[in-house]
Specification:
The complex is a heterotrimer of chains A (133), B (130) and C (104).
Chain A: E1 4-9, H1 18-29, E2 35-40, H2 64-68, E3 77-80, H3 81-86, E4 98-101, E5 107-110, E6 112-115, H4 117-125, E7 129-132
Parallel strand pairs in A: 1-2, 1-7, 2-3, 3-6
Antiparallel strand pairs in A: 4-5
Chain B: E1 2-7, H1 16-29, E2 33-39, H2 60-71, E3 75-78, H3 79-85, H4 90-95, E4 107-110, H5 113-121, E5 124-128
Parallel strand pairs in B: 1-2, 1-5, 2-3, 3-4
Helix pairs in contact in B: 1-2
Chain C: E1 3-7, H1 16-23, E2 29-32, H2 47-56, E3 60-64, H3 65-70, E4 82-85, H4 87-96, E5 99-103
Parallel strand pairs in C: 1-2, 1-5, 2-3, 3-4
The chains are: A alpha/beta (133), B alpha/beta (130), C alpha/beta (104).
């Protein structure tokens, strides 16, 4: 039976390596036929912020990879509304990440779901394995 | 109970490797099984055999090696994280055209799939990091 | 289906404990390890949040004794209601709770 795996992201990208290497785990995890979701809360919401350009800091922009997650069958990206609001952000500041629903004539659907802290807590409680980064 | 333990920080810099080691020892003492210890991020540095800490300090890399030998633990270093940070076993060093390897006894280098497999196969997955 | 939340950051340096307590559900346990034990000291400014978690939200709070001792915190200074465990107790908590989530 498939387990529920959550990738918990609470740190901003570039300042530390966690966001990038978390994404690398997620891409491998996609091959394992488990139920995968990503959670972005606290500073982690910046991982999927629009308009990232780390060129001048000398790093590679890995944010386009989040747009490819749908092709790997990873379609659940939960973002905490309170974490966005605390940082002066809203859903408009996030990349419009979508996936093609093969059960619905490949209609494009949003992968990002902005949810409340209470809903996030419930989703966390449903997981079998949580990898924290 | 069957455990997978993930260690995400290097030795000495952060306490996570110490905590993971103490947790692993306590779990084994209670008769639990450790399916795998997976080292990721700077945690891969726990697997170098070239560390020479001062004599009055603990030798974390050696302690992991010894615990692995005593209990037959599977200590896995993530290859992608290891390549970034210069952790090599002999075959990987050869493949990369490098003239040295530095992996400690009891550790092996493998892919991230080993971590996911640990999560699938174990009753509990515990993450130690920063 | 209770969860063990593991927190390792001082509440005076990061928002980790606050974030954890904001997501822990009734019946869950929170274990303070490493620098997080600094928050367990009676008289600290996070006492109210911890007491609210324990008494208001039915969350059990634990602190890792070896980490308290390492930092010179006498066990009698630990806030009443927080249970001190050793590494064996840490293992027992991971058995008693079906899931574990680290707040890094």
């Amino acid at each position: 039976m498939a387990k529920k795996f959550m990738y918990l992201n609470r740190k901003a990208p570039y300042g530390t390596v966690y966001a990038l290497e978390s994404l690398e785990v997620v891409l491998i995890a996609a091959a394992f036929e488990q139920e995968v979701s990503l959670a972005f809360l606290d500073d982690g919401v910046y991982q999927i912020a629009k308009g990232q350009n780390p060129k001048a800091v000398g790093m590679k922009n890995f944010s386009p990879t989040y747009n490819a997650l749908g092709d790997y069958g990873i379609t659940k990206l939960y973002v905490e509304r309170e974490s966005l609001a605390e940082r002066g952000l809203s859903e408009e500041d996030l990349m419009p990440i979508v996936y093609e629903d093969e059960d619905d004539d490949y209609a494009e659907k949003p992968s990002v779901q902005v949810i409340s802290r209470a809903e996030m807590a419930q989703i966390m409680a449903e997981q079998d394995v949580t990898f924290s980064f | 109970m069957k455990y997978t333990i993930m260690v995400n920080e290097g030795p000495y810099q952060h306490q996570s490797s110490d905590t993971a080691l103490q947790f692993a020892r306590a779990a084994l003492e209670k008769g639990h099984e450790i399916f795998r210890v997976f080292f990721y991020h700077d945690g891969v540095n726990n697997g170098t055999r070239l560390a020479v800490p001062p004599k009055d300090d603990r030798m974390l890399q050696k302690e992991w090696s010894e615990l692995a030998e005593k209990h037959g633990l599977d200590l896995v270093i993530c290859i992608a994280a290891a390549q970034r940070r210069g952790l090599m076993d002999a075959s990987e060093a050869k493949r990369q055209g490098l003239n040295a390897d530095n992996i400690a006894a009891g550790f092996r280098i493998s892919g991230l799939g080993q971590l996911i497999e640990g999560g699938i196969e174990s009753d509990r997955t515990i993450v130690f990091g920063d | 289906m209770a969860m063990l939340h593991i927190v390792n950051k001082s509440p005076f340096e990061r928002n980790t404990l606050k974030s954890c307590l904001g997501h822990a559900l009734a019946g869950d346990s929170v274990l303070l390890i490493e620098d997080a034990v600094i928050g367990a000291v009676s008289g600290s400014s996070v006492v109210a949040e911890l007491q609210q978690a324990i008494n208001g939200n039915s969350i059990s709070i634990y602190a890792l004794g070896p980490d308290l001792t390492a930092r010179g915190v006498k066990l009698e200074r630990v806030l009443e209601g927080i249970q001190v465990v050793d590494y064996a107790g840490f293992v027992d908590l991971t058995v008693a709770n079906e899931k574990t989530q680290s707040w890094l």
